[in-house]
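This section describes the prediction task in plain terms. A model, or a person checking by hand, is given the sequence of a single protein chain and must write out its three-dimensional structure as a string of tokens. No templates, partner chains or ligands are provided. The sample shown here is typical of the held-out split.
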Amino acid sequence: MPILIARSISKSYTDTQKRVEVLKGVDFEVAQGESVAIVGPSGAGKSTLLHVLGGLDTPDQGQVILAGADVYKMNDVDRSRIRSREVGFVFQFYHLFPELTALENVFFPMMVVTGGMRQMNDVRIRAKVALEQVGLSGRLDHKPNQLSGGEQQRVAIARAMINEPRILLCDEPTGNLDSKTGEAIIETLMALHQGEERTIIIVTHDEAIAKRCSRTVYIKDGVLE
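The expected answer:
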């Protein structure tokens, strides 16, 4: 049973009164523990597809089955719950809070869904473990402006990992980094994938990154090739 199934996904937007079809009947499946690269040019629909797969952007038509659950038949609360439990997101831009430390940036999203000091202490411990996993045990108290771009992306990866999701969805995770730093980030992601058999989907335009994955799919003009 695949951990993620997309069937007949269509998505369009209205841009300056013109309707633009971004995804056109996409079918896509990913097995548990698989690593998949989605490759295509700018504007091909890569990021939109990733957001639909992760429950962030409702399709016009189609179905997404995540860990056996029909994501877009759920109400917003249930969809948010399964998304936070099963999926971790890593984006090109780190989306860190500048006033918070690395540790606080990792556990802050959990403050919304936990309550009480005991629970928060557990979350802080999990955040420390996640930062240690990405090699930042010595940067817990550093704020984003005290970290390099690669270190900031590692914080973002740790944040994505705090709930121990079964799937990591990565949208151009090295797009804002130089080649050497980007390679280190891919090494980190692949280690998380291989060490715990975590499913990983990476949107990229970089064929070198795609070759690191077990499978590559190509998207052009909203259609998988």
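For orientation: The chain has a mean pLDDT of 88.
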